[in-house]
Amino acid sequence: MKQLLLAVDRLSTWIGQAFAWMIVALTLLISWEVFSRYLLNDPHDWNLDAQLMGYGTLFMMAGAYTLAKSGHVRGDVLYGFFQPRTQAAIDLALYLLFFLPGIVALTWAGWTFFQDALAIRESTFSATPLPVYPFKAVIPMAGGLLLLQGLVEIVRCVQCLQAGEWPSREQDVEEVDVDKLKQMVHADGAAR
């Protein structure tokens, strides 16, 4: 079971890291538009639509990655003081009451939304229209990945309730902690 959970973590991590490269593409796209608009006096009407769809795709495809890294926002003020079993019980209740119904609804509605857009070959309302249906295909895809990762997190909650400690998860990146950074560089924090 542990290998399956870590495999889903690796899948979410790989997809999140792959889509993170869209930041580079979007930066280049925006830089090119600024150059073209202000220096060449040749703006492109489709560029803003492409940027919005790119950022939307990036945001949606980062959901499963963020859940795999336990990076979604929660009320950590009290949560961090609880024992692992209490944390797992709270998480499990919230996954069952809110997460599962919400993500299932998102995925179902997203699939319908995509099918409708594909049926009419929906495009943007600009002089140079861009197809919208590929972007809308990302909605059910992101929902499915988030649902898969959410099921893994539910299993982790159940395992924590049984064992009294959180099972391991795939490691990737860690937030910068000033104290850890000071220890790493052996700085004492005193001004010199």
UniProtKB/TrEMBL annotation:
Q: Which UniProt keywords apply?
A: Cell inner membrane, Cell membrane, Membrane, Transmembrane, Transmembrane helix, Transport
- Bilayer-spanning residue ranges: 12-32, 52-68, 89-113, 133-152
Q: Which residues form the Tripartite ATP-independent periplasmic transporters DctQ component domain?
A: 26-159
Q: Main subcellular localization, coarse class?
A: membrane
Q: Which InterPro entries match?
A: DctQ, TRAP_DctQ
How is this protein situated with respect to the membrane? Multi-pass membrane protein
Subunit structure as annotated in this protein's UniProt entry = The complex comprises the extracytoplasmic solute receptor protein and the two transmembrane proteins.
Protein name as annotated: TRAP transporter small permease protein
The compartments listed are: Cell inner membrane
Q: What does this protein do?
A: Part of the tripartite ATP-independent periplasmic (TRAP) transport system.
- At the top level of its lineage, which domain of life is listed? Bacteria
Q: What protein family does this chain belong to?
A: Belongs to the TRAP transporter small permease family.
PANTHER family per the record?
Answer: 2,3-DIKETO-L-GULONATE TRAP TRANSPORTER SMALL PERMEASE PROTEIN YIAM (PTHR35011), SLL1102 PROTEIN (PTHR35011:SF4)
